[in-house]
């Protein structure tokens, strides 16, 4: 397991580290979607800046978009902030958007977590 979920008052931070594989992203999402406060969350920050390597496939990203579509039936107001510096992760973000992810929740990509929080605060 190369992630931890940090719960904030109005949302979650998925913090990834080390070598990230497909199962980590899927399991992190599953854990988050069953949180008792999920229906009240306003944001999820997916934080990838402390990783050593990422081994995700397009198939996993498309699966994540489908899972988010299902989760959005319980909560349509989540803002999704992706924090990363890797060009590869930004390409995967485009796969997510092309798989319908852009139609589910408002999403934006950031180079640092401070800018992600500023965006979340400015849109609520």
Share of residues in strands: 25-35%
* Mean pLDDT score: 89
Provide the low-confidence segments as ranges.
none
What CATH calls the topology is Transcription Regulator spoIIAA
Work out the helicity level. 25-40%
CATH superfamily: STAS domain
CATH class category name:
Alpha Beta
Based on Cα principal axes, name the global outline: globular
How many strand units?
5
Can you summarize the main beta sheet? 5 strands, mixed
Overall number of structural domains: 1
Strand numbers in spatial order across the main sheet:
1-2-3-4-5
Q: Helical region count?
A: 4
Structural class: alpha/beta
Question: What are the secondary-structure elements, in order, as H or E?
Answer: EEHEHEHEH
Taking all Cα atoms into account, the compactness measure Rg is: 13 Å
Distance separating the two termini: 32 Å
Keywords:
5-stranded mixed β-sheet, alpha/beta, Transcription Regulator spoIIAA
Question: What does this protein look like?
Answer:
The protein is α/β, with parallel strands linked by helices. It has a single domain (3-122), classed as 2-Layer Sandwich (Transcription Regulator spoIIAA), CATH 3.30.750.24. The protein contains 4 helices and 5 strands; from the N terminus they run E-E-H-E-H-E-H-E-H. It has helices at 22-33, 58-71, 87-98, 113-122; strands at residues 3-8, 11-21, 43-55, 79-83, 106-110. Strands 1-2-3-4-5 form a 5-stranded mixed beta sheet, with helices on both faces. The longest helix has 14 residues, at 58-71. The termini are far apart.
């Amino acid at each position: 397991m190369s992630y931890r979920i940090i719960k904030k008052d109005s949302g979650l931070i998925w913090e990834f580290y080390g070598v990230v594989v497909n199962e980590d992203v899927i399991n992190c999402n599953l854990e988050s979607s069953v949180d008792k406060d999920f229906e009240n969350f306003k944001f999820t920050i997916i934080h990838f800046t402390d990783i050593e390597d990422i081994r995700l496939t397009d198939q996993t990203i498309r699966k994540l978009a489908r899972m988010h579509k299902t989760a959005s039936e319980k909560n349509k107001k989540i803002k999704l902030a992706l924090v990363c510096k890797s060009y590869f992760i930004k390409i995967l973000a485009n796969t997510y958007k092309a798989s319908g992810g852009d139609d589910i929740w408002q999403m934006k990509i950031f180079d640092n977590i401070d800018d992600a929080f500023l965006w979340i605060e400015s849109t609520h």
